Structure prediction request, 354 residues.
Amino acid sequence: MSRFFSARYQTLTPYTPGEQPQDMKYVKLNTNESPFPPSRKAVEAAAEAAERLRLYSDPECRALTARFCAVFGTEPDEVIFSNGSDEVLNYAFMAFCDEAHGAVFPNITYGFYPVFAELNRVPYTELPLRYDFTVDVDAYYGVHKTIFLANPNAPTGIALRREEIERILRGNPESVVVVDEAYVDFGAESCLPLTKQYDNLLVVQTFSKSRSMAGARLGFGVGNPELIRDLNTIRYSTNPYNVNSMTMAAGIGVLSDEEYTRANCRAIEENRAFTVDAMRRMGFAIPDSLANFIFACHATVDGETIYRELKARGVLVRHFSKPAICDYNRITIGTREQMQALLDTLRDILEERT
Ligand code: PMP
Prediction:
């Protein structure tokens, strides 16, 4: 730390992103990216947009908004785009929380929430998951705090039903409920249809997972126009050109190729079922996941050993050292070939150790 670093941030512990090795030698199953290439329409549109990089991007994202509204059935004033969904999540902490109205989220969830809370000096409460890692919906009634729920949750992959989230919305009419649906396209129920009905609901999604665009950094929030206006006040006060023009074009391209996105999501769901079935037969406990990853704990070999041994053999997964989940690894679902490589490697490791 330099002697100039603001006292405000001296105790901030930043988020630790997953490893991004730059050599391609790993079967990379650690950061929940899509194993499929982006849509050709996205790539071609981005290449064309590169010719116009001299100009600033459109701060109103008009062309992307028009395409988005046609696909998602929203109105232009109900959506905001961001540089990855992390950015709109940060905006939500800035816009809808303060000292008097803190944040609440599960004790096991996306690790960025406590970082955003600390960055913005927002007091926060972490409500414990149940023993089986499910969210205790009743604990979220009348909390008088801004609620952040990843659905499906990370790193467990377990999803709440839409009606359970609706109960939380009704139980907190004076608080914003942010539903982070980064992984919703792999079998869970989206709360997007509820945004017209509940003025306290903000649904956040990303193009990073189901649309194979993690490197482009494109996320969005959908909610009541007044919520979106608040988020835009924050956006225009930080970075009005937050979505670059190549990413915007790629977003329009991929939204013109919904068949491709749907086919990729179905392939991930099939590969997930195949992997879970095989790993359970090897002695892994895995909660039912509706995400593009699974959360796996072995009966006899500890989580860190599995992470290390997999890495030594060229398979990268995500291990968290937090005591409540250190027996587990989060494993991204990839192609069938990648999953076969994972299973073969796990078999070798377990044979050596049992
Ligand atoms: N929410 C959750 C639950 C995530 O796991 C991630 C990915 N790390 C994000 C949001 C952010 O994704 P992105 O910024 O790539 O849209």
